[in-house]
Fold this protein.
Amino acid sequence: MAARSSAPEKRPGFFSQLKTLFRFTKEAYAWLPYALVGILIAGIGVGVGIGFLIPPAAVWSIILWGVTGLMLGILASLMTMTRLSTTAMYKKIDGMPGAAGHVMSSSLGRRWRASDMPVGVNPRTQEAVYRAIGRGGVVIVGEGARGRLTRLVGDERAKVQRVAAGVPVTVLYIGHGEDEVTIAKLASTIKALPKKIDRTTMAAVIKRIDSVSQSLSSLPIPKGVDPSRVRPQRPR
């Protein structure tokens, strides 16, 4: 048997990640290379123009400003590609199962606690419910056909209100219809919620809900019973 290597797994370097990001973004925006080259040329042009305008217009001054313009052009190119890659990512995952969980777990920041795993799911239809907890309270996000999410969302709301009475609960549905939130605006919509609870209350809510979820997962589930329909019993 071969011995396992104790060396840490080598992560992709900066330029490797940049290359992957470029390829991914180019698949959605074929004109990306021309846009990036145009930004670089514009940056150099602006730098050289400033070098000519600021006296004395010496050669070394023009070169120095040209290099400065190039650096600014590179920075602007990276910012442009990052923004376009984010838009491309949202377009690619829009409508895919698990998209809400991916966005909530990676884009909400440290002020919110969320997971890419759903807290409720219908295994037959793939409708799922996700949950985030933060200073804005508890946010329940439904992903799938809204009509079939009513029961899952209602069960999760009831569970939260039972263990965290008084904490505001916001329900969002992913979609493109009226009163629905697109996957691209999900993170910004959650972050824009006004602060309703302090950090101490937030930590207590997370602890209570995690405790209930763990107790539910440890219970044996009979055959033929949908796990998303199992409710915790009230403590006596």
